[in-house]
UniProtKB/TrEMBL annotation:
Any one Gene Ontology BP term: peptidoglycan biosynthetic process
One MF annotation (Gene Ontology) recorded for this entry: enzyme regulator activity
CDD domains to which the protein is assigned, alphabetical: PBP1_YraM_LppC_lipoprotein-like
Source species of the chain: Thioalkalivibrio halophilus
Protein name, as recorded: LppC family lipoprotein
Cellular component GO terms held in the UniProt record: periplasmic side of cell outer membrane
Keyword Membrane found: yes
Keyword terms, alphabetized: Lipoprotein, Membrane
Length: 607
């Protein structure tokens, strides 16, 4: 027993082998690092750029493109690299809708709208890549392209249909609502009337709200209308915007301040500049607020731009001018501006608060098409003088008529000094064809039939246009062939601004849009000295433009927030298109009676 115990003790005392070593834990694999949007786009581009075409997976290319398009704004270097990635995608015929949307947006961000439209193409509901996201993105791009083309009515239609797709994207939906409101203001009055008549999906309530707030004379009237509208449309998406719209209604004048006027008061345009200045001065002193500082641009666009810069540095509250188109375009591109009115149109983008005002012939030609559509006259016949000026009128009238679904039957261009003018007009109004029909019937019957040739029956009105001298040469031939039995319209250029019955007796029956102040006594902004506008200046329309420019300049900034507001002026009723910064005019209408223009009672309404 003793020996056994000793053995056990010895065994316990013997050294034991080390236990098996515990293996080190596996290293932790870090989770994927979340990169900020721009580094993520850079990273994805680098990955696909490192691969040859045969190894670059289409989905990786698409992921890189999507990462770039998600940036706001999109940096130009990344944009060019994403464009290169898009060109490496499989060139399927046709391309999948999702790839067309991606390519369209890339072209849009690069400023290539025509290419964007070509890539986007038509919607395809059966395309398997037409997910809700790409359907939405495609519609948004389609709307922007229509806006770029200034097809306001069509763009508004697209945005109405887009809105329900943005329910889960509140920021995007708010931006879409703001765009809808701006497009409502961009429409001409006749187009808004059409919007109220047509059953357009998503338009319900928008037209009523725009029209009602636009007609409110003051804040109390706007509040009263808004309550009634909310009762009629309790769930309308525009309800969330009512507080802002009511706060801006109606557009009010800015506080009194200094106004700088930039006009050519010497040189070839001095007469025009002086007429505009006379109107500005009358309106300014009738208003009686602030100082008016006048600067002579001498008809030099570079001088006009330098004077504009000086006015900004001097702290002018408002700037009116310059007048020449080149100067206006250059001013629009400056980095610093002040609220006010440029006195010509420009295709360049205008910053908020800067607006453009002009009496342009294209707007007058569109007014003719609008009046024909409102009265239901159908398709028209254009008899328009040859030349660059006639080209502008013919194009604007034709496009506006097409928008109303009443494309012109014919746009006849005539040389008003040609010796065969009567024969040519006879052919255009259908006299020749009528004579041929009479002769054909006479031959078939073997009788010597006689009859008065009739004008064509497929037109509802005649648009006769050109300079005043051109129209005076055309009009007698229309009367001679009894074409004046149809409604006849022209542009304001037919009327010099002062009545002369002996000179204009051949213009009887021709209606034209013009400044309402030409046909009534005016008292600008409370001025008690009412007298006919035509007695104010040798260029009465530009005098009226100056009066309105002063009034609109001090409302330029606030009108961006309340584009539904209509401002009644001497040259017409004005409404701001906030998408372009252009003031749009609704003119009055007059018709020649016994050689003198008479204001028509059925003048074009503002809605």
């Amino acid at each position: 027993m003793v020996l056994l115990a000793a053995g056990l003790m010895a065994a316990c005392a013997a050294p034991q082998p080390d236990p098996a070593a515990t293996p080190d834990p596996d290293p932790e694999i870090p989770a994927e690092i979340e990169l900020a949007p721009e580094p993520l786009a850079e990273h994805r581009l680098e990955r696909i750029e490192a691969l040859p075409d045969e190894q670059a997976e289409p989905e990786e290319l698409r992921a890189a493109i999507d990462a770039v398009l998600a940036l706001d704004p999109v940096p130009e270097p990344l944009l060019e690299r994403a464009e290169a990635a898009w060109n490496r995608l499989p060139d399927a015929k046709p391309r999948p809708l999702a790839d067309r949307v991606r390519g369209g947006w890339l072209a849009w961000h690069r400023g290539e709208a025509d290419l964007a439209a070509e890539r986007l193409g038509a919607d395809d509901p059966d395309d398997p890549t037409r997910t809700p996201e790409f359907h939405r993105r495609g519609m948004e791009l389609h709307a922007r392209l229509l806006e770029w083309e200034q097809q306001w009515y069509q763009a508004l239609n697209v945005r109405f249909r887009l809105d329900p797709l943005l329910t889960l994207e509140p920021d995007l939906q708010t931006a879409n609502h703001e765009r809808i409101w701006g497009l409502m203001a961009a429409l001409r009055p006749t187009q808004r009337e059409r919007l109220g008549r047509e059953n357009i999906v998503g338009a319900d309530g928008w037209h009523d709200l725009f029209r009602g707030l636009g007609r409110a004379d003051d804040a109390a009237a706007a509040e009263t209308f808004a309550r009634r509208w909310q009762q009629a449309f309790p769930r309308h998406p525009a309800n969330s915007h009512l507080p802002e719209l009511l706060a801006a209604s109606p557009a009010s004048a800015d506080p009194a301040g200094d106004t700088v006027v930039l006009l050519p008061l010497s040189g070839n345009l001095a007469g025009l500049g002086e007429a505009v200045l006379d109107g500005i001065t009358r309106a300014h002193y009738a208003d009686g607020q602030g100082q008016l500082r006048v600067r002579d641009t001498r008809g030099d666009p570079r001088q006009a731009v330098a004077l504009y810069r000086d006015a900004v540095l001097e702290g002018a509250d408002h700037i009116i001018g310059p007048l020449q188109r080149d100067a206006v375009a250059a001013v629009a591109d400056l980095e610093e501006h002040r609220p006010g009115v440029l006195l010509n149109r420009t295709a360049n983008a205008l910053p908020r608060g800067v607006t453009a005002l002009a009496l342009d012939p294209e707007a007058d030609a569109r007014a003719v098409a609008d009046r024909a559509a409102r009265t239901g006259w159908g398709a028209g016949l254009g008899i328009i003088a040859e030349g660059a000026f006639g080209d502008r009128l013919a194009s604007a009238w034709s496009l506006a008529a097409e928008e109303h679904g009443a494309s012109p039957r014919e746009v006849a261009r005539v040389d008003t000094r040609a010796g065969d003018l009567n024969d040519r007009i006879a052919a255009h109004v259908g006299i020749d064809r009528s004579r041929e029909r009479i002769a054909s019937v006479s031959r078939r019957l073997g009788l010597g039939l006689e009859g008065d040739p009739q004008i064509r029956a497929d037109v509802g009105y005649i648009f006769v246009a050109g300079s005043a001298a051109d129209v005076r040469r055309i009009a007698p031939h229309l009367h001679f062939h009894q074409a004046s039995r149809l409604p006849m319209m022209s542009t304001p250029h037919v009327y010099p601004g002062r009545p002369d019955a002996s000179r204009d007796r051949d213009l009887n029956g021709i209606a034209f849009p013009d400044a309402p102040g030409l046909f009534s006594e005016i008292a600008a902004l409370g001025n008690t000295g009412a007298e006919p506008l035509r007695e104010q200046s040798g260029l009465p329309r530009f005098y009226a433009l100056g009066m309105d420019a002063r009034r609109l300049a001090v409302r330029a900034d606030t009108s961006y927030a309340a584009p539904h507001t209509t401002l009644v002026g001497t040259a017409g009723e004005w409404q701001l298109n906030p998408l372009t910064g252009d003031w749009q005019r609704t003119p009055a209408w007059a018709r020649f009676v016994r050689g003198e223009p008479r204001r028509l009672d059925a003048a074009t309404p503002s809605d």
